[in-house]
Amino acid sequence: MRFVEEIKKLLAAAGVKGEIELTTPPNPEMGDFAFACFGVAKELGVSPVEAANSVKSKLEIGNWKLEIAERIEATGPYVNFYLKTSELAKTVLGEIQKQKEKYGANKSGKGKKVLIEYPSNNTHKEFHIGHFRNVCIGNALVQLYQKNGYKVYPVNYLNDFGNHVAKCLWGLLKFHNHEKYPVNKQKWLGDIYAEASRQVRDNPDFGKEVAEIQKKLEEHDLELWPLFMETREWSIEKFEEIFKQLGVKHVAVFYEKDLKEKGQKMTDDLLQRGVAEIGEGGAVIVDLSKYNLDVAMLRKSNGAGLYLTSDLPLAVAKFKKFNADESIVITGTEQNFYFKQLYKILEIIGFKKKLTHIGYGLVNRKEGKMSSRLGNVILYEDLSDEVCDRLKAESKIRHADWSEKKINQTARILTMAALKFDMQKHETAKNTTFDVKESIAFDGFTGPYVLYAVARINSILKKAKTKKGDFTLLIEPEEKQLLLLLAKYEEVVVDALKNYNPSAITRYCFDLAQQFNDFYNKRSILSAENNNLIAARLQLCWAVKNVLENALNLLTIDTVEEM
Question: What are the residue ranges in the chain where pLDDT is below 50?
């Protein structure tokens, strides 16, 4: 924003050297922006308080001219800047009107390409809310990178050839071989996998049978392969259906079945080069102890591959196909150590590409940690249906005159808003406990609360014809806080990407919606003192709506006209 650059130029003219960073004071009485003088104090050899007074004096001696500031004060070690609300309004609202949906975008990533792999889910397992959180984070990062000017390649890697597949196929053949397939075949496979996992846990000898199935898979056994391909397709079809619903648009999908053999050859090459070695029982390992990364296994003693066996050639294949500057993989935090091992091996063999792993926290129920092996996961579809049913019931109570079609459409949008917002409102690495009742509340830190603010603005704008307002009339403290928040959006977009943290966007949406509601409750809009003030406040409302929709779009959340 122009006024931020003006303040920085002003400070530079007053003798402040180096990069100038402005902060927001904890309350408006301490100014709208503050400059900490600790660095200046060190350079001058004086106390921070003396440094702040010195900077302020130089600004006064220089007869500072800053149209947007009404005064500058030195408070303790800070120089505080108090902005003119009317000038702030002209700058901020003028920029939003000019940029519209592009407001907040920048070109910092121009010419750079990034590849984002998500959700890396497994076939023969169910799509649960852990996968859903992965998708929400991945979708948001795709949008954030694009907003920051990058060329983005969203891809997926389906684990369709691992031990979980062998376990599921073993369970199907051993316990369900002659059963009629149900309508939801993907869910059936997930149930069989959970059952098979319990059987293997309780009967250790069954593990040998599963290992034999795994071996046959890797050998493309003629009898087993058709069943594998058929059941694999069940999962892929269901995943594509869910991805379409969630707005996931992969430009490519990689499959473990296509990489396992390449990984085995790569393992042989690492043995020849001395990077890998034969470990206990004949397994192939890479000793990473000197890097404090323990020992990584590339091949089991029976010759079967592991995840590492496939992930090594996957890294190569992704860069070969897209030639990106960076490859990002999003998985649960429980795989943080695994990816450190993977990236270290790639570094050792001379793979000089930027590799980033983003670990997200687990999504738990109130009853405790979920596990697909134990069969106690919360399925995305079940959760989505439950939330939608509740919101339909709420909409019927609020709008008895609405048609069934409108109720269903509104409830579906609100369902996605509630779920996606809740999955992203915590920092990425933190574990979360999902609460249905809390997620659909129309007040508090929720998606429906933010959407309600947009719907309220829609209602206001429908009742009056907007015209160009006189922004100099916007002088109230609630208006100023709204304007400062609107101005902050650009910074939020940059920081959210810098920290791989979509929760910064959800927090911003909530803060902006909350600040708008405060303005709405304290200041009249359609019944203001005169038409010019009404027009100015309507423009402010429009700007808030525009930025909220802009921010929600980063979270792939749609809005509704009314609620």
Answer: 370, 372-374
Strand partners of residue 363: 432
Angle at which helix 163-175 crosses helix 206-218, to 10 degrees, equals 110
Identify which of 104, 109, 20 has the alpha carbon closest to the alpha carbon of residue 504: 104
Q: What angle do CA 502, 503, 509 make, to 5 degrees?
A: 100
Nearest to 263 by CA among 361, 348, 162, 195: 162
DSSP state of 523: S
Give me the sheet containing 151-158, strands edge to edge.
252-255, 151-158, 113-117, 326-332, 354-360
Backbone angles phi, psi at 366, to 5 degrees: -65, -25
The pLDDT, as a whole number, for residue 493 is 97
pLDDT in tens, 429-463: 999 988 889 999 999 999 999 999 999 999 999 99
422, 117 contact by CB (below 8 A)? no
Strands (DSSP E) found in 456-516: none
Phi, psi of 469 (to 5 degrees): -100, 165
* DSSP label at residue 205: T
Provide CB contacts within 8 A for 51, sequence distance 6+.
37, 38, 40, 41, 44, 77
Q: Evaluate whether 549 touches 487 at the Cβ level (below 8 Å).
A: no
CA distances in angstroms from 424 to 170, 263, 340, 502, listed in the order given: 37, 35, 25, 6
Is the CA virtual torsion 437, 443, 445, 447 positive or negative?
A: positive
pLDDT for 158 equals 96
- Are 429 and 330 a contacting pair, CB within 8 Å? no
Distance separating the N- and C-terminal Cα atoms of the chain: 34
Alpha carbons within 13 A on the beta-carbon side of 558: 14
Phi then psi dihedrals of residue 111, to 5 deg:
85, -5
Structure tokens at 552: 């929600």
> Strand, helix or coil at 428?
coil
CA 402 to mean position of chain CA atoms: 34
Pairing of strands 78-83, 33-36: antiparallel
Query: Over the stretch 256-293, which tens digit does the pLDDT of each residue have?
Result: 999 999 999 999 999 999 999 999 899 999 999 999 99
Q: Identify whether the C-beta of residue 498 lies closer than 8 Å to the C-beta of residue 426.
A: no
Both structure tokens of 544: 């808030």
Residues 424-447, buried b or exposed e (16+ Cβ, 10 A)?
A: bbbbbeeebebeeeebbeeeebbb
Q: Are 528 and 534 a contacting pair, CB within 8 Å?
A: yes
Q: Residue 165: phi, psi to the nearest 5?
A: -70, -45
**Coil/strand/helix, residue 535:** helix
Helix (H/G/I), strand (E/B), else coil: 86:
helix
Distance CA 563, CA 554 (A): 22
Instruction: Give the Å distances, CA to CA, from 518 to 77, 455, 470, 472, 480.
Output: 32, 16, 22, 21, 12
Strands (E), 338-382: 354-360, 363-364
| Total count of residues recorded for the chain | 563
Q: Give CA 275 to chain center in angstroms.
A: 36
Query: pTM here?
Result: 0.91
d(CA 537, CA 173): 68
Q: Which of 432, 441, 460 is nearest to 510 (CA)?
A: 441
